[in-house]
Sequence to fold (322 residues):
Amino acid sequence: MVYTVRSYSCHNINPNCASVSNRLTGTTSPTHVQMRAVAIATRCPCDALTISCRQRRRLSGRQSLQARAGLLSFFLPTKQSTNKSTQAALVKDLLRIASETNSGANASQGQRQDIKNLAEQLQEAGGVENPVYNDLTWGDYEVTYSSNPRAAGGPILRSPPGQIIFSNQQLRQTLNPPETLINSVSFKCLGLFPGNAKQPAVIQPLTGNTYKITLEPARIYGIKLGPESTERTFEVLYLDERVRVVQFLPSSPAKGSEPVLFVLRRLGAVHAPKQEHRQRNVNNMFSAWTESARSFAGSSKSKAGLATQAERRFSQQKSASR
Fold:
């Protein structure tokens, strides 16, 4: 029995491999052991294709797992889509509870706590970045909730007697680019005579999340109410296509003063600013960042200067003691 070995052979010889017959010839059919005996350690072109049964089972099992994982990943939502769905559910619950409070005037303690918790969850989930400079800021809003009922609409209209005299109140806020804000309250005096109270203001961005407004006196039937001008600072906690959640920040930590939470539901489309207004917002944002960087660098430099002065004084005292 004679076998002829060609110039290359397969070291993982499989009797079922078609390339074996091209390399091993003889008068009788060789056994698997005999083929291993005559095989040389030169890799053949079919080596990548001829695998053992154990390797084939491992590969088939791994491919099956990969196929199942791919199928599951196709049907399972991604992290981003899950975050969006979570935000949508939080916004839905927030607007539902806030709409039952008469803009905060009839809110129970439990409702106030629920709204506060939902606002904190939305802030943690995160809406659009730099909301003060985002186009979604502009538009018409309904003031659905205020943690201080008299902060929205003023103490006269929002007091219990004021809500009786000026009934059917609807609180609105309109933001028009590039810097106009208008608070308005529509009502019916004694339930018969329609009226409207308006208070315009100018918006000044401070950072990507905070802004300052300068309020002018409110007017009802042409009668001026309140001081000449008032400045207030707000922080945007959350902003998307449906809702804007902001918080009034007191200028001083006086006794009894605390941040006031507002929930505003969007009405209608976004008041998109013009291109020059967008460029202005970009410039304001860049200026705010530059000023923050300079103040940080200045504080670091002053701290370094104080440290140097302390070292010099210590050296002088040490030399004088000698």
